[in-house]
Backbone:
């Protein structure tokens, strides 16, 4: 057993650190911070600026991609270090839809034309993607989806509705699961994987406001949308296979250990300034115990993730154990956002950045912490709810 | 970065696994714990032959020079078999103190005897009022000519009844709870002035109350420096705590696996109870707790144990977190076994009882949680370089 970084790893770590220091734009940091604090929507430029910078540097925007497709092809240890350093420096995270989701599907199952058309834009961050999986009637039971694609000549005609389409308001393209064979024996067998240009006539995006007032997700409607058959990935009716491949990719890295670590550090800072019973809140036994419990859980999860990474690098693959990372990782994210809100007492109340008030009130560190808490209830629901993750482990790991 | 065993460690793992498989089937174990002695000398001889008794000792004294990973391997497998022989008290706890504090003469005299299996030792530190505080020592030692005279009482001393020698912590100076002024003495268990009241524990191990009345100990049998034993006691108890955590992780694996198997086989309402989602999710949560326990054990084992703050933090984090896992996995195992869970005849209750008592050993969850908080409360912890230390 050896958890030491090799000399090369340490060199890599300082290379990343230096790169971030020199290249992460201060204007971006300021712009994102001020919007976050006021609960304001980030712009497309906010979300992609860092992606674009990394995309120009040895494929660092795509840590897992093979070099032949322009990725960085980091080792698992390097990926871990890279994530840690980005989290420590509080860099804006890279939107997962292109890099982590559709990218690997395209280079694994797509044809040469599709690779040439789409991979460079995903890598550079110039093309913004979103995900068309869930439908109003198909959440955890994804395979029951109804959006139809009927072949007419050299086009599919797509009709239906997708929902929870994160950041569809900025997206240039959407990757969709569509039903191409309504008569298949099993619902999984009639599904295809289609890439759709969001500018195609008949595509409509409507915002869904979340309980913190944020606009992250949307409804996406398809009304006789004509999609060229060249946009089909792999084979018709084989979409479920590609979808499952994508979901496994989505779950890895979902633990967010490095970001939760940073968040706990911040809570400790906040709790050092907040006073309770005439003493800093950080001295309060009940609060302290909750911080410590979160730290222990996170420390264990960090080693669970490292064990998974080590297995991964030995070529044994992440597999359904990644469901464990999703469950525990999101548990901790939720515990941490709750602690942050709790730490600021009354200043959990102000809801800034609405049309009713545009002024800062309260301590700088307190703004929008309750919004974040409310927003993060999503974490145990998305990406396959934590109950579904337990079903996956029960079936795939415990053999029940 | 890897979590694989070295070739030597794999051999050690295989060796202990085979020992447990071949010599510790359930009936054999039941006979051992029911016997008058509460352990089997034959097994101890085999430990000696296999080299297990020498694992942590320096090669200069005939040991194998093993590190925390090696002890983890031994204890995890012992946990899987619920091995009751006093390995932890003798080799890790008492042996650790002798290695840490003994003079050359003492080490040359005692360590080879431990390694060869000739003697066993136990460490008498807890007292009725001390609970888990290692610094709370009322037992007194007063110098009288060339001898110290000891008086006091030691509680729940594991393995004392099987030991030829006890290491006793006593106060030679200072207030009852002062860290300075504690001295260690090595004494023969047959010494005049020493009375052992032996008893079985709820998890079928053996312990003793030790009554000390005018026990004379020669100055030569002081272990380490007079008044200065506290730091070493804390360190060796920390190392022993990691060993206890390793045993717990072995036990948790058995509890998780056997409960999963049981639920697959147990039929009610015409189907296996494992078909019920409520059971499935409980089994998944047991697995998650087990994996988290194992992960935090790995964190502790690979931490820089030579740095005392790092060591304290890592040990208390592991003990507190594993304590939580013991409660959840243990209680769930009993619950899912239904009536079979609560009977003495079936194995699962024995694993649950041992795990629960490990939860108490060297300080329970709350105790270590508090220690962890005390170590980390002062501002921001420098978790930056947490993963930068190598131990093999």
Residues:
């Amino acid at each position: 057993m050896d958890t030491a970084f090799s000399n090369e790893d340490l060199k890599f770590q300082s290379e990343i650190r230096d790169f971030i220091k020199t290249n992460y734009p201060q204007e971006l940091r300021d712009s994102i911070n001020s919007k976050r604090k006021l609960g304001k929507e980030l712009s497309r430029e906010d979300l992609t600026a860092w992606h674009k910078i990394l995309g120009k540097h040895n494929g660092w925007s795509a840590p897992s991609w093979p070099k032949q497709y322009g990725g960085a092809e980091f080792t698992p240890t390097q990926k871990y270090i890279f994530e840690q350093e980005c989290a420590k420096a509080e860099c804006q995270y890279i939107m997962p839809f292109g890099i982590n989701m559709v990218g690997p599907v395209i280079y694994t199952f797509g044809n040469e034309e599709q690779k040439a058309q789409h991979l460079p834009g995903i890598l550079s961050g110039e093309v913004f993607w979103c995900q068309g999986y869930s439908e109003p009637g198909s959440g955890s039971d994804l395979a029951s989806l109804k959006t139809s694609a009927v072949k007419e000549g050299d086009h599919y005609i797509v009709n239906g509705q997708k929902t929870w389409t994160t950041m569809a308001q900025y997206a240039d393209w959407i990757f969709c699961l569509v039903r191409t064979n309504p008569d298949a024996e099993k619902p999984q067998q009639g599904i295809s994987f289609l890439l759709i240009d969001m500018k195609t006539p008949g595509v409509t995006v409507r915002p869904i406001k979340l309980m913190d007032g944020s606009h992250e997700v949307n409804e996406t409607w398809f009304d006789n949308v004509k999609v060229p058959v060249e946009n089909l990935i792999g084979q018709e009716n084989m979409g479920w296979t590609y979808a499952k491949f994508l979901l496994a990719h989505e779950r890895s890295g979902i633990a967010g250990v490095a970001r939760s670590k940073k968040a706990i550090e911040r809570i400790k800072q906040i709790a050092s300034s907040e006073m309770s019973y005439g003493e800093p809140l950080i001295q309060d036994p009940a609060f302290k115990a909750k911080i410590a419990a979160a730290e222990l859980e996170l420390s264990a999860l960090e080693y669970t993730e490292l064990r998974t990474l080590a297995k991964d690098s030995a070529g044994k693959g992440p597999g359904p154990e990644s469901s464990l990372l999703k469950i525990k990782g999101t548990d901790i994210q939720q515990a941490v956002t709750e602690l942050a809100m709790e730490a600021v007492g009354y200043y959990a109340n102000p809801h800034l950045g609405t049309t009713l008030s545009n002024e800062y009130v309260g301590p700088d560190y307190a703004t929008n912490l309750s919004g974040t808490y409310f927003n993060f209830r999503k974490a145990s629901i998305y990406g396959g709810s934590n109950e579904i993750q337990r079903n996956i482990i029960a079936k795939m790991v415990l053999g029940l | 970065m890897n979590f694989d065993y070295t070739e030597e460690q794999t051999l050690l793992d295989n060796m202990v696994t085979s020992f447990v498989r071949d010599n510790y089937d359930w009936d054999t174990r039941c006979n051992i714990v029911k016997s008058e002695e509460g352990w089997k000398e034959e097994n101890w001889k085999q430990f000696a032959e296999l080299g297990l008794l020498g694992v942590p000792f320096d090669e200069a004294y005939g040991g194998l020079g093993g590190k925390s990973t090696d002890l983890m391997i031994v204890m995890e497998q012992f946990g899987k078999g619920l091995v009751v022989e006093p390995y932890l008290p003798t080799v890790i706890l008492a042996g650790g103190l002798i290695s840490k504090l003994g003079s050359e003469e003492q080490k040359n005299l005692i360590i080879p005897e431990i390694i060869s299996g000739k003697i066993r030792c136990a460490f008498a530190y807890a007292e009725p009022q001390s609970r888990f505080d290692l610094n709370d020592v009322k037992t007194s030692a007063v110098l009288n000519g060339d001898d110290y005279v000891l008086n006091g009482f030691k509680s729940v001393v594991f393995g004392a009844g099987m030991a030829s020698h006890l290491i006793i912590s006593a106060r030679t100076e200072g207030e009852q709870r002062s860290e300075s002024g504690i001295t260690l003495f090595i004494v023969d268990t047959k010494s005049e002035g020493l009375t052992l009241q032996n008893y079985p524990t709820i998890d079928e191990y053996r312990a003793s109350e030790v009554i000390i009345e005018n026990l004379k100990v020669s100055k030569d049998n002081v272990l380490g420096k007079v008044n200065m034993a506290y730091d070493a006691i804390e360190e060796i108890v920390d190392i022993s705590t990691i060993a206890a955590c390793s045993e717990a992780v072995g036990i948790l694996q058995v509890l998780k696996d056997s409960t999963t198997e049981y639920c697959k086989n147990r039929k009610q309402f015409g189907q296996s109870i494992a078909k019920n989602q409520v059971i499935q999710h409980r089994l998944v949560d047991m697995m998650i707790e087990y994996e988290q326990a194992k992960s935090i054990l790995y964190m502790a084992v690979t931490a820089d144990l030579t740095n005392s703050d790092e060591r304290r933090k890592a040990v208390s984090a592991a003990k507190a977190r594993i304590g939580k896992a013991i409660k959840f996995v243990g209680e769930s195992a009993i619950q899912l076994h239904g009536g079979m869970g609560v009977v003495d005849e079936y194995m699962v209750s024995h694993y649950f009882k041992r795990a629960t008592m490990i939860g108490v050993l060297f300080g329970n969850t709350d105790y270590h949680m508090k220690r962890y908080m005390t170590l980390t409360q002062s501002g921001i912890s420098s978790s930056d370089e947490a993963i930068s230390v190598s131990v093999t």
